[in-house]
From TrEMBL:
One of its GO terms (cellular component) is adherens junction. This is Ig-like domain-containing protein. It holds the Pfam family V-set. Belongs to the nectin family. It comes from Synaphobranchus kaupii (Kaup's arrowtooth eel). It is a single-pass type I membrane protein. One of its GO terms (biological process) is cell adhesion. It is found in: Cell junction, Adherens junction; Cell membrane. Coiled coil: none annotated. Keywords: Cell adhesion, Cell junction, Cell membrane, Disulfide bond, Glycoprotein, Membrane, Repeat, Signal, Transmembrane, Transmembrane helix. Cis- and trans-homodimer. Can form trans-heterodimers. Gene3D superfamilies: Immunoglobulins.
Length: 397
C-alpha cells in the first residue's frame, strides 16, 4: 500500500494529512480542501523522509510523528492479511484433492445394472491416519456434466436426502462414516452417470472416489437375425425409446407357398448383456385350399384282377372337411367300394374302364384330381375284334 504525501499545508511541523481510498486517517486536523485521495498498494515508500521505517511481514510501514496515524496503518495491514488468510483457507477447504492421497476413498470404478433392479454403491475411507472424518456426501454427475447432491451423512445430524430424482429410492443401509455405502432401488435408464463419494475431513480437506454406473438394457442395440429354410428377406430398424432405451424391430418378408406350411423359422437375438443368444422358435402356418393327388394306378389293371385300390392324397390348411369320389361316366361301378379317401375295386371288369375323380374341400375352397383307368385283358387271353364295331372275342391260350 503506497501513501503519497499531501501537497497541502504543513501541519504541526512535519505532520501531513493523508487519506486512504478517500477516508480520513486523522479527523479534524486540517481543512477538508487539503485532503488528497491515496491509492492502496502493497508497500509504503520510505524515501525522502527523515523518519525511520519498520517492516512487518514484507510490508513496509512509514513511522510518522502522529501515533494515531501509525496505528491506523498497522491495523489496516493486519485486517488485510487476515482477509487474505481467510480466502486461502476457504479455497483450500473447497478444493478436492486430486493427487494420490485421494485414492484413500475406496469405491468400485464401474457398476452395471438393469432398469428396475437395485444397485449397491460401495464406499470406504482407507488409511485415514491423523485425519478426522467429519461428513460424507454422495454426488450424482449426469452424463451431461450437471451435478446433484443426493445423500449426506453427518455423525451428529444423521442422514439427509436432498430433493433429487433419487428421492425415495436412495438410502444408507448402515449409516456411518466407516461404511457410507448407499443403495439405489428401482433403477431407471436415466440414472446412468458418475456417483462421487465425497469425504469432508479435518483439517479442511476433501477427498473423493467415483463410481460409474452403466445401465445395460437397450444399449447397445440388440442384433437380430433369422434362421429358416424358406426364401425370404429380413429388414431391421432401430428407434430411440423412452428412458434412453433403443427399440430394435426386425421383419421377415416372404411370398407364402403351400410348401412353406409347417416349416420352422427362428428369430435369434444377440446382446452383450446375454450369456448366449436368445432364440425364439416359430412355425409357419400358411393357409391354402386343398391340393389333391390320386395314387395307386400304374396302367396294370386287367379283367379279373382283385382288390386294387386308389388313394386320394390331399393337403390343405385349414383342415380338410370332406372327400368325395365320383366317376365321369355318372354311375359308380358295382365292384367299387369307397371308404373316406380310399376307393377299392373288389374285382376289375369292363365297367371299371372309366375316369375316377377325387374332390376334397376345406374352408378356403375345393381341390380335385382324376385318373383314367384302362382295363386290359386278363393274362393268357387275347382280344380280337373290330375297333369300328366294338365287337371283341377273347381267346384263352
Amino acid at each position: 500500500m503506497e501513501l503519497q504525501q499531501d501537497r497541502g499545508e504543513v501541519l504541526d511541523g512535519n505532520r501531513y494529512h493523508f487519506t486512504v481510498t478517500g477516508r480520513e486517517l486523522i479527523q479534524g486536523e486540517a481543512p477538508a480542501e487539503l485532503y488528497t485521495d491515496v491509492p492502496l498498494s502493497c508497500e509504503y515508500p520510505v524515501q525522502d523522509t527523515p523518519h525511520p521505517t519498520e517492516r512487518s511481514n514484507s510490508v513496509t510501514v512509514r513511522v510518522y510523528q502522529s501515533a494515531g496515524l501509525l496505528w491506523r496503518h498497522i491495523l489496516s495491514a493486519l485486517v488485510l492479511f487476515a482477509a487474505v488468510g481467510l480466502l486461502i483457507e476457504h479455497f483450500i477447504s473447497h478444493t478436492p484433492i486430486t493427487d494420490a492421497a485421494s485414492q484413500r476413498v475406496r469405491v468400485d470404478p464401474e457398476v452395471q445394472s438393469y432398469p428396475g433392479e437395485t444397485v449397491n454403491l460401495r464406499c470406504a475411507f482407507a488409511d485415514k491416519g491423523d485425519l478426522q472424518l467429519t461428513q460424507v456426501s454422495w454426488i450424482w454427475e449426469r452424463t451431461d456434466g450437471a451435478q446433484d447432491n443426493i445423500a449426506v451423512y453427518h455423525p451428529e445430524f444423521g442422514s439427509r436426502y436432498p430433493q433429487s430424482p433419487f428421492t425415495g429410492r436412495i438410502s444408507f443401509p448402515n449409516p456411518s462414516l466407516d461404511n457410507p455405502s448407499v443403495v439405489i432401488s428401482d433403477l431407471k435408464m436415466t440414472d446412468e452417470g458418475k456417483y462421487i463419494c465425497e469425504f469432508s475431513t479435518y483439517p479442511s480437506v476433501i477427498e473423493q472416489g467415483t463410481t460409474t454406473l452403466i445401465m445395460l438394457d437397450g444399449k447397445p442395440p440388440a442384433q437380430i437375425k433369422w434362421v429358416s429354410g424358406v426364401n425370404a428377406n429380413g429388414t431391421t430398424t432401430s428407434k430411440p425409446g423412452a428412458d434412453n432405451t433403443v427399440t430394435v424391430c426386425s421383419e421377415y418378408w416372404l411370398v407364402p407357398t403351400p410348401a412353406d406350411n409347417g416349416k420352422d423359422i427362428s428369430c435369434v437375438i444377440s446382446h452383450p448383456t446375454q450369456d448366449k443368444p436368445q432364440t425364439m422358435p416359430l412355425k409357419l402356418a400358411i393357409e391354402y385350399p386343398p391340393k389333391v393327388t390320386i395314387v395307386g394306378y400304374h396302367n396294370n389293371w386287367y379283367v379279373g384282377r382283385t382288390n386294387v385300390m386308389l388313394t386320394c392324397q390331399a393337403t390343405g390348411n385349414p383342415v380338410l372337411t370332406s372327400v368325395t369320389w365320383k366317376v365321369l361316366s355318372g354311375r359308380m361301378p358295382d365292384a367299387v367300394q369307397v371308404k373316406e379317401n380310399k376307393l377299392m375295386v373288389l374285382k376289375v371288369d369292363e365297367f371299371v374302364n372309366t375316369t375316377f375323380v377325387c374332390e376334397v374341400k376345406n374352408r378356403l375352397g375345393v381341390g380335385k384330381d382324376q385318373v383314367t383307368v384302362v382295363v386290359s385283358a386278363a393274362p393268357g387271353r387275347k382280344r380280337r375284334g373290330s375297333e369300328s364295331t366294338g365287337e371283341f372275342v377273347e381267346t384263352v391260350c
